[in-house]
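G., the chain you wanted modeled:
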Amino acid sequence: MRIDGRALAVYILKGLEKKNISAHLAIILIGDDPASIAYVRQKILKAEKVGIKTTLLNQESGIKNQELSETIKQLNNDNNIHGIIVQRPLPPHIDSGLVDRLIDPKKDVDAF
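Predicted structure as tokens:
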């Protein structure tokens, strides 16, 4: 059986466009990797198309684990934020396991 992922995505997005969604997604992008930037841009476009507000938090590639942890904790505690994405890949010095553990499971869009 072959599944057409693009067709399925279009079908789901069209269904979501008809719903009255009131959600706010925070996306953390670390560094300036062109592929990650393009991927995040598409996430924002798709989210906004179905009525999901997005906030992009651009972070320098040299951000420290502690700074990133504080940002994630603030987003976890913000009742106006309903979902959090930390765009991958992460710089090598960032502890991805720590990031995975820090994001509130109720807000973890990537389900790490």
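The first strand starts at residue 23 and ends at 30.

Shout if anything looks off.
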